[in-house]
Structure formats: C-alpha cells, structure tokens
Design a protein that fits this description.
InterPro entries: dGMP_Pdiesterase_EAL/HD-GYP, EAL_dom, EAL_sf, HDOD, RNase_Y/CdgJ. Keywords: Kinase, Transferase. Pfam families: HDOD. The chain has 425 residues and is of the alpha/beta class. It has two domains: 4-207, TIM Barrel, CATH 3.20.20.450; 213-425, Hypothetical protein af1432 (Orthogonal Bundle), CATH 1.10.3210. Helix content is 45%, strand content 13%. It has 18 helices and nine strands. It has an eight-stranded mixed beta barrel with strand order 1-2-3-4-5-6-7-8. α7 runs antiparallel to α8 (232-240), α9 (243-253) packs across α10 and α15 packs parallel to α16 (362-376). The longest helix has 19 residues, at 392-410. The radius of gyration is 25 Å and the shape is elongated.
Length: 425
C-alpha cells in the first residue's frame, strides 16, 4: 500500500498491519503471518489481546482486502481465547486461513471443545511457539501446523521431538525465529517443511488510509441486526448513512473469505450477498476496533454528494442506488486524499459503475461530471441554462437529508466540538 505521505487529507486516518512471509523448502512464499502494528514504524507488536486480533482481522479483510495482503497464499492469524472458544465469532470462512493458538493460552476443556468445532468447520490450526508439557499437547490431534522457536529448542532432543510431531500425519512443522544461516542449515538437515525468520525476511508494515468509524451508527446497526425480525430496509439505510461502514461492507462482499465472484452495484445487493449474519459479525468486530471518528461536517459533505447523485440519477436514466454508491465512493476518495481509481480496484463493483468512476463513461459518468461541475461552480459545463437543469431542489434535498441523517445519529445538542454542518455543496 501507499506511504504515509500519500494520505494527508483531513478525514483520513491510517491503519497498519504487519505481515511476515513463511517460506517453503524451495524458498517460495507459502504464506504470511499477519501481525498487529499500531503504527508504520513499529518493529514489534505491543499487544496480542482480543483488540489486536480484531484489529488485524478487520484491517486485513476490509481495509486492505485479503487478496492484496496475502493473495492466494495461506494467512496465519494469532487467535486469543475469546475467538477459540466461540465467545467472539470469526467473521470469515476457513479458506486460506490458519488460526494460531498462542502459547500463552491455557488449553482447558473449553478451548479443546472450541478448537474441535473450528476444525470440524474446516479451519486449520497452528500451535504457536509450542512448549512441551504446557497442555498444548491436547491439541496435537487437531493441528495442521506446529510452530517451533528453533533457536531455543534443545538440539539434543530436536530430532526426537520432530519425529513425535510427525506421528500426527496432517502436521507440518514451521521453524520460526530463524536468524542465521546455521538455523537454515538445521532446517534442511531435519527436512522442516516451512521456515520463518529475520534471516529470510523481516515483517513488512502495510499502511492504508480509511475513514474512521461512525460509532453510534455501528451500535444502531448491531441493534437492528439483533432484532428477531430484522428489517432489511432499515439495515441498508443505516449502512448507507455511514461512509466508512459502506466501504467495509462493499469490500467484505468481495473478500475471498466470502467465496463469491458476484459483482454488485448497490449497498442493498452487497448486504443481500453477504447475508445479515456476516454483516452482524463484521459490525461486532468494528465496535471492538473503534478507535477514531470522522467529523460531522465531513460526514455531511460525503453524504450530501451521495444523496445528490441519487437525486440526479433519473435525469440521466441511471439507477439511483448505483448513483448513491458512485457519489459516496468519490466523496470517500476525496476524504482519503487518494485517486478514485485506487479505491475502485478494491471494491466489487459492476462494469458500468467501474467505468463511470474511472473513465467517466455512461449515464453515471455524465452525472458525476455534472456534480463535479456544480461543486466547482462551472455553470457552462453544468448546462444550467437548459430547461429542467436547475439543481437547486436536488441540492437542497441532499443537504436536508444528510444533515438530518447525521443529526439523528448524534442527537441534537450532542455534536462533537468543532463539528459544523456544511451549508453549501
């Protein structure tokens, strides 16, 4: 992803994720371990709790897109007890994902039962920094990988231990902490299948820009999703009013973990494609991951543009829902200070919507040019002298709708300091 200098616009925040390659015996990358990083300069993770795990999952699957982070390779993610026992639900399927059981976890009956359920659902398990007589032996029949801190292993017992692990046929060994050529030679000597360490590659920190979460909308969405008779229209309205959540839902609908290649042109399609269960899981993780906010003024501006596009769509024989998405995506790109094309390539959009956003073609492209002209005050390009081209009504409706939407989310008298609603668009 881009460097920090690319993301300087107000309204954008930076998210980071670390990844360290895992190599096979031929020197090819077999997978990546994803690591929590609080900033782009972080060398080591400073926390390995439920927050860190949620942070890594949300960023990998929605801010970056798993295909960009790991491609078609395996993705190793540290799990905490809450995820292993089912107290917190994994919001992705088992494809290309390996769940690492940290050495700090007390492997009791609840963990064994939870891991058994995860394996039955198709997830692969790795035992991280395996330590003998720590209780983790109970998980060996369920594991696909055992990760050994090779430099700290007893060399006199290493061959015996490897032979024991290989008594469980599915298990492959991952030697980690490799720092010297001697460590690599030891891997070759014992035929260790996978290798990880500084001698091969240090962790890389990836950085992306995102719109910070809209906290109260997340809580409202969770409430709507938890209702016995979940109202799809209300859920779509809540998501549509939150630019950051809209981006994450669109990205999640294209995630390799969802297992779909369908394209979408509206938020409703993305919600139906993902299913309310997936949306609920992501919303829960976003609440855990909630660390910053966009100002109300920025939200009003983004939603005003999206609503204006929705209002103008019929004049261009365009679909209003697709027009709303087009307007919101261009507003989000502006908030992040990145080119719209950079954002579009991560989203599962239809061909027509992609063409409008990247090349300005088709009815949606013509509509976006008029909206751009209005924002620049370019009356000639807008063609306002032609009958029926007055935008005043559409603009005023968009302002009222966006202001009311944001006010409803925060409540009158509870606006954040410095947040002033836009009066022109």
């Amino acid at each position: 992803m881009g460097s920090q200098s690319e993301f300087t616009q107000p309204g954008a925040s930076l998210v980071h994720i670390g990844r360290q390659p895992i190599f096979d015996t031929c020197g090819d990358i077999a997978g990546y371990e994803l690591l929590f990083r609080g900033n782009a300069q972080a060398v080591e993770a400073d926390r390995r709790d439920a927050y860190a795990t949620s942070h890594v999952m949300v960023n990998a699957f929605t801010e970056f897109g798993l295909d960009e982070v790991v491609g078609d390779r395996m993705c190793f993610i540290n799990m905490t007890r809450e995820f292993l026992t089912g107290e917190l639900i994994l919001p992705f399927g088992p494809e290309n994902v390996v769940l690492e059981v940290l050495e700090t976890i007390d492997v009791d009956d609840a963990v064994v039962a939870g891991v058994t359920n995860l394996v039955a659902a198709g997830y692969r398990i790795a035992l991280d920094d395996f330590v003998w007589q720590s209780g983790h032996e109970r998980l060996l029949p369920l594991a696909s990988y055992v990760k050994l801190d090779l430099p700290n292993c007893d060399p006199e017992r290493l061959e015996e231990q490897l032979a024991f692990f290989r008594g469980f046929p599915p298990i492959e060994i991952v030697a980690e902490g490799l720092e010297t050529l001697e460590h690599l030679a030891l891997c070759d000597r014992y035929g260790i299948e996978l290798r990880q360490g500084y001698v091969l590659s240090r962790p890389q920190v990836m950085t992306a820009a995102c719109i910070p979460p809209f906290k109260l909308r997340r809580l409202e969405l969770l409430g709507a999703l938890s209702a016995a008779d979940a109202d799809l229209d209300r859920i779509v309205d809540i998501i549509s009013s939150d630019p950051a959540l809209t981006m994450r839902v669109l990205r999640a609908s294209n995630s390799a973990a969802v297992g779909t290649i369908q394209r979408v042109s509206s938020i409703r399609q993305a919600v139906v494609l993902l299913g309310l269960g997936h949306i609920q899981r992501w919303a829960m993780l976003m609440v855990v991951d909630d660390v910053a906010e966009t100002t109300e003024a920025q939200l009003v501006d983004a939603l005003t543009r999206a609503r204006l596009c929705h209002n103008l769509a019929p004049r261009f024989d365009a679909d209003p829902d697709s027009a709303f998405v087009a307007g919101l995506i261009t507003a989000v790109a502006e908030l992040l200070g990145i080119d719209t094309s950079s954002l579009v390539r991560h989203l599962p959009l239809t061909v027509d919507l992609c063409a409008a956003l990247t090349r300005g073609t088709g009815p949606l492209g013509r509509m976006l040019r008029v909206v751009d002209a209005y924002e620049r005050g370019d009356m000639a390009l807008m063609g306002v002298t032609r009958p029926g081209n007055d935008l005043t009504g559409a603009v005023m409706d968009a302002l009222r709708w966006s202001t009311q939407t944001v006010t409803a989310a925060y409540g009158e008298g509870h606006r954040r300091p410095g947040a002033q609603f836009a009066t022109t668009r």
